Amino acid sequence: MNILDKIVLRKKEEVALAKQAVSVKELEAGLHFNRNPYSFKEFLLDEQCTGIIAEFKRRSPSKGIINDQVSVEDVTTAYAAAGASALSVLTDTDFFGGHTRDLLKARAANQIPVLRKDFMIDEYQIIEAKALGADIILLIAAILTPAEIKHLAAISKSLGLNVLLEVHNQEELERSICNDLDAIGVNNRNLADFTVNIQTSFDLVDQIPSEFMKISESAISDTETIKQLKQVGFNGFLIGENFMKTANPGQAISAFVSELKSV
Ligand SMILES: O=C(O)c1ccccc1NCC(=O)[C@H](O)[C@H](O)COP(=O)(O)O
Prior knowledge:
By secondary structure, this protein is of the alpha/beta class. The strands form two sheets. An eight-stranded parallel β-barrel has the order 1-4-5-6-7-8-9-10, surrounded by five helices. It has a two-stranded antiparallel ribbon with strand order 2-3. The model has no long low-confidence stretch (mean pLDDT 97). It has one domain (3-262): TIM Barrel (Alpha-Beta Barrel). Helices cover 43% and strands 16% of the residues. The N and C termini lie far apart (43 Å). The chain is globular. The structure holds ligand LARABZUK. Its EC number is 4.1.1.48. GO terms for molecular function: indole-3-glycerol-phosphate synthase activity; phosphoribosylanthranilate isomerase activity. Belongs to the TrpC family. It comes from Pedobacter frigoris.
């Protein structure tokens, strides 16, 4: 059993428990349920922003603890102030040390799109994401069938949420594309064995139909790579560890963006 299998197995248990604890009706009565999500595309294409989707990531299966000493509010507001186009907040607890509370805090403190970064396998989690104040949800092709992707994307769109589909290779891309997606992310990390290779993004970019925003995800650590990814057509860059591994992720993104503007 690889790490993705383990995560999905645990996620099924978590979702079953969450359904018992909080009904869909209760979620629909939540604070943020009726707010209009921000447009992911608008913020990605806004020239005042950088295209960076900056991630709040305490730990990961591949790296263990990355940073458990900083607050969600401090880090995410610094990310937004530095010009991030969107925030990514991990809400998985067992494998990433995140929490749904983190998303609520990021939502309350920021006025840019927030991605609920989790392993979505059930429509309950989509409704929960809306109730938490998320603007974007992630669908990972490696853990979903094409029919599941279609179903979860349609529900997300009906709630006004933006949908980011994540793929790792051409086969996943071809079988998973459907209506109701806004963006396609190419994950440079193989989630089954943790190997990373930026070349994955360059290899897949031309296969992504032009109507979708194009996002390169994981293992991005220098501004030169962003410049090259932009040149081949990427609109967004999901970055977690590179900022979070420092004592001050806000300062790290600020220095990164200053360098990005000068290259
Ligand atoms: O990061 C991991 O170790 C990981 C393991 C298993 C499934 C997912 C995993 N990461 C999720 C992500 O895709 C990244 O958090 C995100 O793209 C940011 O990556 P990075 O900039 O390399 O932290």
